[in-house]
Amino acid sequence: MSALPQKIYPVVDTAEWVNRLGGAGARFIQLRIKNYSPEKLVAEIRQAHTYAKQHGVCLVLNDYWQIALDEGIDYLHLGQEDLDTADLAAIRKAGVRLGISTHCHEELDRALVCAPDYVALGPIWPTRLKKMAFGPQGVEKLTEWKKLIGDLPLVAIGGITFERLRACLDAGADSVAAVSDFTLHADPEGQVKRWLTEADAETRAAV
Known about the structure:
Blueprint: E1 8-12, H1 15-23, E2 28-31, H2 38-55, E3 58-62, H3 65-71, E4 75-78, H4 88-94, E5 97-102, H5 105-113, E6 118-121, H6 139-149, E7 154-156, H7 162-171, E8 175-178, H8 180-183, H9 188-206
Parallel strand pairs: 1-2, 1-8, 2-3, 3-4, 4-5, 5-6, 6-7, 7-8
Helix pairs in contact: 1-2, 7-9
């Protein structure tokens, strides 16, 4: 199982964020867009993909599997409800790598049947960004998930801040995702550099 592109994984909602954070050194970014018209949606994804290629970013598109195939996006991220409608055979045939959200053992079992390229677990801490049917999982669940999935990469997401990054990595996460700790920060580019420095320090400590 191939490793993920980077230990930090910003999740953003516009192409411009891909440009800004990619320019600051982020190399694994998810674009999660909601409530755009079809025309604006495709244009925004194309712009994000252009920025991603300029900065050497591995772009992950949330949800829109057909657009990911049409536009040649690197990765696709699907929630459990997205699995009901996505054409997994077409996704695999196109060579698009796949990440799947999980929140409980039943969802993990379902995800593993799909042979994803990574599994995400969350929310690790409470999050205000969207209503969740599941409560906070805690870092201990990361350790449990990692034992269950073995070499398959594990992503932590939900309520994660810079101060919580190391705890997630120490618990077994291969990459740590965050939204507001980047996009609501006073210095988003500087925050990317802080996260990268901390993640690199964790890597060195493990050697």
